[in-house]
Amino acid sequence: MAQQVPVDPSALAELSEKDGVHEVLPDLAYRRLAMVNVVFVGRPDAGDRGWVLIDAGLPATKGLIRRAVASRFGEGARPAAIVMTHGHFDHVGALEDLAAEWDAPVYAHERERPYLDGSASYPPGDPSVGGGLMAMLSPLYPTRPVDIGPRLRTLPADGSVPPMPGWRWLHTPGHSPGHVSFWRAEDKVLIVGDAFITVAGESAYATAVQQPEVHGPPKYYTVDWAAARDSVRTLAALKPAVAVAGHGQPLQGQELQRGLEQLASRFDEVAAPDRGQYAKHPARAEDGSAYR
Question: Per DSSP, what are the bridge partners of residue 36?
Answer without folding.
Answer: 33
